[in-house]
Inverse folding.
């Protein structure tokens, strides 16, 4: 691919299973956006060269590698998970373990917390996959905050841009994900009946892997 050098291409080609992609992303430090340049939405090439990523940046890279290495259905698919206004949204790359009616969905996910991570391809559909994150998706007060999810978005729709190797932020892709139809996972009457995460769950939820310098 244009602009990837040979060592970078070699790295991407070795990531020939979803598990290897996840392991690679886990080794990248979290992008805390603390270099004075403000918020970022980096391209896959920029992630490789800066050696850091947050969730949407990692999802874009993971989706690209899934497509490059023809894993699952060979498409670069991501799903946007939307939280309440007082919490953060999360983006995951999704994949299938085969084709046809028996194919199951899994997810590659970059998070600095002990939860919201990789999902094995054992889920029947995207809703079931997203719901596997519901009980762990909490804020610092123990409130369960996950509310909506999008259908998988094929990043191939952006191939007429230079999203893979751009040196600019991919805000147009970020905004598109936010604009597509999202499906609610709760009815209004369920919101107030949700139990708060208990004290042990809150402790686990606050564990972080990478610390700000």
């Amino acid at each position: 691919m244009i602009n990837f050098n040979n060592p970078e291409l070699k790295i991407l080609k070795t990531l020939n299973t979803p598990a290897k992609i996840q392991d690679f992303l886990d080794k990248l430090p979290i992008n805390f956006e603390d270099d004075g340049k403000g918020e970022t939405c980096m391209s896959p090439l920029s992630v490789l060269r800066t050696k850091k990523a947050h969730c949407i940046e990692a999802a874009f890279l993971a989706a690209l590698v899934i497509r490059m290495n023809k894993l699952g259905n060979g498409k670069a698919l991501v799903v946007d998970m939307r939280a309440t206004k007082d919490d953060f949204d999360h983006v995951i790359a999704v994949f299938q373990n085969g084709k046809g009616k028996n194919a199951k969905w899994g997810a590659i996910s970059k998070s600095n917390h002990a939860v919201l991570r990789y999902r094995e391809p054992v889920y029947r559909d995207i809703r079931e996959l997203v719901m596997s994150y519901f009980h762990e998706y909490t804020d610092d007060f123990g409130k369960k905050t996950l509310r909506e999810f999008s259908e998988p978005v094929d990043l191939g729709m952006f191939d007429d841009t230079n999203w893979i190797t751009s040196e600019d932020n991919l805000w147009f892709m970020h905004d598109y994900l936010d604009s597509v139809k999202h499906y609610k996972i709760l009815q209004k009457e369920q919101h107030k009946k949700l139990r708060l995460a208990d004290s042990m769950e809150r402790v686990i939820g606050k564990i972080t892997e990478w610390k700000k310098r």
Q: What stands out?
A: The chain has a mean pLDDT of 96.
